[in-house]
Design goal:
Elements lengths: L10 H25 L4 H27 L8 H22 L4 H29 L2 H8 L23
Amino acid sequence: MTTPAPIKRHPAIVSFSKDHHFGLLLIWKIRQGLTRSISVERISNYILYFFKEDLASHFREEEELLFSKLSSEDPLRQRAETDHLLIYSLIRDIESNKSDEVLLNLFATELEKHIRFEERDLFNHIQEVLGVEALLEISRRFSGSKHDIDEKWQDNFWEIKK
């Protein structure tokens, strides 16, 4: 069995892919917490914190810098925007009901499907259809180290205590 070759990312899009790593890590943390029977409310609080500190701005930047460069009729853009709306809706639902384990599983599943879609399909499409100027404009995105957000978070429920 051969392993597929890694996808070559245009430098303009690399920072978005790096963000996706932390989104996948969020999914792993959610699933670790649920597997270890951590209080659903504790996990929900972390999801809401992560969304506020990281994911919301990531979505906004994707919408402004990537999706907007594609035609509003582009089916991949439409799917990405629909995915974002679904995830925003799930966040509102989690805010309203922090004790719903099914909701957390749904959030993790939908976020993972969305990230995989962007990495496998949307980003490749963007690289193919956008011109050099548009990619240069995207490359000006500031990607500071916002991924130290766990340093401010005290409840690392996903860690195994020894």
